[in-house]
Design brief:
The complex is a heterodimer of chains A (568) and B (255). Chain A is mainly beta. In chain A, strands 6, 7, 8, 9, 10, 11, 12 and 13 form an 8-stranded antiparallel sheet that branches. A 5-stranded mixed sheet of chain A has the order 5-4-3-2-32. In chain A, strands 1-28-27-26 form a 4-stranded antiparallel sheet, with no helix packed on it. Chain B has 255 residues and is mainly alpha-helical. Classes of the chains: A mainly beta (568), B mainly alpha (255). At the A-B interface, helix 6 of A face helix 6 of B.
Amino acid sequence: MKFFLALLGGLSLTVALVAADERKSVFTDITHQAGINYRHTNREFHNPYAKIMAGYTALGAAVAVGDYDNDGFDDLYVTESGEGAKNHLYHNDHNLKFTDVGEAAGVANANVGENASADAMWFDFNNDGLRDLAVIKFGHNQLFQNLGGGKFKDITIASGIDRYANAITAIAFDYDRDGFVDLFVGNYFQAVNLFNPNTPRFFPESFETANNGGGVTLWHNNHNGTFTDVTKKAGLASSGWVLDLGHADADNDGDDDLYAACDFGTDRFFRNNGDGTFTDITESAIGVDTKKGMNVEWGDYDEDGKLDIYVTNITGDYMREGNFLWHNDGNLKFSDVARETATYDTGWGWGAKFFDYDNDGWRDLYVVNGWVSAGSDSYVPDIFDMITKPGIDFADARNWPPMGNKSLSGYEKKRLFHNERGQIFKDEAALHGVDSTRDGRGIGIADLDNDGRLDLFVANANNEPFLYHNVGPTDRHWAQLELVGTKSNRLATGAQVRLTAGGRTFLQFIDGGNSFAGQSMHRLHYGLGNITKIDRAEVRWPSGATEVFTDLPVDRLTRIQEGTSKKQ
Amino acid sequence: MRILAILLAAASAAMAESAAFEAAEKAFSAKDYGTALAQYETAIKAEPDNMRYASQYRMAVLAQAKALHPKEGTPADYDRSIKFFETLTAEHPAAAVAQLNLGFAHVDKMPAAGAITQVITANTALGFFTKSIDARPTWLGYYTRGNSYLFWPKIFNRAQLGVNDLEAAYKMQKTGPNKPYYIRAYISLGDGYWKTDQLDRAKALWKEGLALFPNSAALKDRLAKDGDDLKAVIEDTLDPNKRVDTDLKELWSNP
């Protein structure tokens, strides 16, 4: 009998292994057939430091997901960086085909003269129900007001945000809960004109404690189409080499806190004081680090009702920083569990985003990576020679070796971490065909065909992007929620929804552009596995109001308006 | 009479040095790090090549760093010992043990530093290990520098330099009676052979070591594993983010 049981055990193991091997790829590459036909190019500079700068400005491939024409299908805005290159607004034609309407819409010309696009973001700054567009640049950021009818108007100067900056990221959320989203911009280099620098000392002064970067700029929304720089007043004056910003309510006190990922030094954690100001609580919240923060993504990966943070850093055989997965321990304290959850090493990490790609009810994690994939020679020895020179002035660009055709952390495989019930993650990128070795930068998650399965857009530097269509199994359930603020900002950015179903409570929130060089869909998507009934959804609006909605359907998108306390 | 005076003075200095060391040890035990460090420094100045004094001094610096700051301390916590040994070696450039401990002081700092500072610090430490060997070639000097080379990523082509040094240490230890710490060379030289794609030589050396040290879990582990499992063991050993044990007690207690 024992032998028989052992045999059965062996048999079931064999079946399980076969089943694992036979699992089909969830994603299929439809980039070209969808009509996405552009190739990002890095900006080349024409100044005495151009050859040195080339290695450090391989940036600017970004994607922003947003339904700009309110036709119920998310569209894509993608950036180029090459001189004179056009950015693209890909209208979703509802059949997984896209048409570039960027020029007709008036949002394509963003790389003219001393401007190189770095990021883009949809947000409704005037609460008119039409998504407006911010294009973030090394140069002059641009603000386009959505006029409806597929037309946009450049209101940069009238809005008051026009100035030279080396901006690289932006998010929008209503930090002071006045019903209008505000604009947070992260700046990499300080505001030295990179196209024509008046000093050679604009590079990071240190690899680990640099404080000569661009810092954060906070533009307060004046409710009349203009913005005011309130950075200092709000307590956000800083000088880090900001690469990404991410917001969420870390302590469930009703207002959103801010995490700034900084290259060449310490990431910063700012607690929202609830009175229009922030306090830097880095030391007590996350501690002082010396790493190269690239990405900020918030999400409750372990379903404990608190929002955690994923930050990518640099991990290679020459430098083993490791990423952060900051587990939210409560009381504004975080513990790094990246090693324990197997999300520590993603190479030279860039954008990362939580999303449930297989609708099993656990939020997975996609991470893109790779710095410069060029020739077979490595740039590492060149950097080593520089950093070991006694007394070298790192801030002086002339001391940095040109990268030429050498590679640095190039040809790295992307990671698709499957969430194993909130305990550990398992890389399934190769299985699902999303382990490309292109130099990834931004990620956009969206349900582009409204079939309840999340698709994936990847913006690559100096290369073509990827649009991966989700063709995974259809036997798992899901729910999507679109929130409309009335007292709160119209897109309900910052709203938290605790959805209870099958004895579990799933916490998600609407973010205003979290993750590096990427903005994902505004709708909330809940994978539900085999759960067929939703018990309730508790919505905490940015205004502070809380409402409970019941009888929500599964396998459908539901629109919820603030103040109605019933589904529409 | 004059000779007697010199002898008395020397004896008096030795007694003072010994008293300083005893006071340092007592203060270290009581976690009075300020007193301990000052007394250790007095003792070391009188005898720059005393391995026990120097090692205990660095262990006190380490304990103080961990007491002052969580985990591994801050980089600045280690600056006192680095500065002290820098001054000492400037005054006594031929003091091989002092040069070695200056290198170790940099190694002690590494876990508290960032990834780039770790590279700079490791490279600096190698320079002092070389000065120690130049001053007086010893088993410890070759073992230390050789083992340090193994931590470097492949791109820097330093593994073979590590093998050369570890082979020199291995040759030295074969010329005399076996000592407990010689097992380290068997492990590290084998790891060096593995890093330079000489698996057969690595296995043969680990086997030879196991015959001399039959209870060694590290050697048994390496001999029991192959492929990625063996790679994981060696990479874990050579993980630059893990603190390297630089306590020389094993050496000074087994002269």
